[in-house]
Amino acid sequence: MLFLQTALLLTLLPCGNNENDFQEPITFQIIRISSFYSRFFTQSLGSAWLDELQTHAWENNSDTVIYLHPWSKGNFSDEELIEVENILHTFFIRLGQALYNHASQWQLEYPFELQVAGGCEMHIRDASVGFVRVGYQGSDFLSFQKNLWVPSPEGGNRAKLVCALFNLYQGTQEIIHKLLSDTCPRFLLSLLDAGKAYLQRQVRPEAWLSPGPSPGPGLLTLVCHVSGFYPKPIWVMWMRGEQEQQGTQRSDVLPNADGTWYLRVSLNVEASEASGLSCRVRHSSLGGQDIILYWDQHSSPGWVILAVIVSLVLLAGLAFWLRKSWSTYVSDA
């Protein structure tokens, strides 16, 4: 089984190299956040993620799954998907009922929020690892380990009481174990297979330069924007010749609405030292041909425009003078 898993991962990993969006390990997880405003009013939001790519969503307070991509069903049959959806729905219903029935015993104070994350993490040279983690009010509360619910130290006595109850239901524990150890890894691999064309696509970045807010007198902030690239891994650096500028500051890589990524890289310099600096971009979609943008070339259009405006003003003045001189000559004649 491990050999088969390794072979499939090596085949299905997007791009098939170290510069891909899904570097080992690869994780598929379902996240559900439930807000308990009172004993009679609860709201829940759910989503599923393949690493940092959202693949599924749940309608508010509903067990209806929204498949966000044509390949989000993987290679599972409709019957398998319905079975998994029903199991998940039953688990969250029972979890809510347990909280409702034992709210006073566990000293749960309304309103409170419960976060649940469950799924599997796959490694090329190791077996998959399943997990379920539960958070209460944003802190670790309990987790599922080796067929048992284990309280987190932050959960205190309340977490111990919850685990003691959950561990009584061995049938539920066996179902969770099967989901984590068998169903989840199979579904993760089927997502990679069904979505292979999408996940392995290469989209070239666009890059441009702009000045940022001045950090102080005599200083400049040079900003290099890189957007629209996929997969996510990218290298962007301010350079002077072939020397990397150590003061380069890199923002988080942020998602665009179309599934591509955006990055902003800036450098603070003395205004007199900006000349000769360049922003260099490396990405797997560029075929080894870096994008290089020179700050001198960015700033030169402004001077060109200014020169054109000055020239036009001078020409207009010359034309006015010639016209006036010609009128004076004609009147004198």
From TrEMBL:
Taxonomic path: Eukaryota, Metazoa, Chordata, Craniata, Vertebrata
Show the stretches that span the lipid bilayer.
302-322
**GO CC terms, sorted:** endosome membrane; external side of plasma membrane; extracellular space; lysosomal membrane
Question: Where does the source fall among the domains of life?
Answer: Eukaryota
Q: Where in the cell is it found?
A: Cell membrane; Endosome membrane; Lysosome membrane
Domain Ig-like stretches: 185-285
Leader sequence segment = 1-18
Give any GO molecular function from the UniProt entry.
Answer: exogenous lipid antigen binding
Q: Which gene encodes it?
A: LOC102175634
- SUPFAM superfamilies under this entry? Immunoglobulin (SSF48726), MHC antigen-recognition domain (SSF54452)
Bilayer topology = Single-pass type I membrane protein
Q: Where this protein primarily resides, as one coarse class? A: membrane
Q: What keywords is this UniProt entry annotated with?
A: Cell membrane, Endosome, Glycoprotein, Immunity, Immunoglobulin domain, Lysosome, Membrane, Signal, Transmembrane, Transmembrane helix
* Annotated source species: Capra hircus (Goat)
Name of the protein this chain belongs to: Ig-like domain-containing protein
Does the UniProt entry include the keyword tRNA processing?
no
Its Gene Ontology biological processes?
antigen processing and presentation, endogenous lipid antigen via MHC class Ib; antigen processing and presentation, exogenous lipid antigen via MHC class Ib; immune response; positive regulation of T cell mediated cytotoxicity
InterPro entries (UniProt xref): Ig-like_dom (IPR007110), Ig-like_dom_sf (IPR036179), Ig-like_fold (IPR013783), Ig_C1-set (IPR003597), MHC_class-I_related (IPR050208), MHC_I-like_Ag-recog (IPR011161), MHC_I-like_Ag-recog_sf (IPR037055), MHC_I/II-like_Ag-recog (IPR011162)
